[in-house]
Specification:
- This protein is mainly α and 124 residues long.
- The chain has four helices and two strands, in the order αααββα.
- The protein has a domain of 85 residues.
- Helix content is 48%, strand content 10%.
């Protein structure tokens, strides 16, 4: 828990956003319906119809707009550091592509673990 002035955090937030140039404030614009529609169309036309993925995989990976949310950018203050800088945190638990990310991780994890194990050296 950290106690500080809201104006200080707003200044730090603005400075971070300008410095990083990595984020864009959307305001009231909601790109989620368009992202969902385009992604689902891609899954169906480019992956499902040519049978690159199964019907079950298509259903698993399809974005359901009522279940998805855009990722949120939050900050935690680093109270232990001078000037109390902010640490950006992206909360993407219900992000539209979270299912795709999990699917790819499940698919690639065994290969990665095997390759990483073969290249690990332990010196005693």
């Amino acid at each position: 828990f950290h106690y500080g002035k809201i104006e200080d955090y707003r200044k730090k937030l603005k400075a971070y956003l300008e410095k990083s140039q990595a984020y864009q404030c959307l305001g009231k614009v909601d790109p989620l319906p368009d992202v969902s529609q385009r992604t689902n169309k891609y899954f169906f036309l480019d992956l499902r119809l040519p049978k690159c993925i199964t019907q079950k995989q298509y259903e698993l990976l399809s974005i359901k707009p009522d279940e998805a949310e855009l990722a949120h950018l939050c900050y935690l203050s680093k109270a232990h550091k001078p000037g109390t800088p902010l640490r950006p945190i992206i909360s993407g638990v219900k992000h539209p592509t979270i299912k795709i990310s999990k699917f790819l991780d499940d698919l690639l994890r065994p290969l990665f673990d095997k390759m990483a194990q073969e290249t690990s050296y332990f010196w005693l």
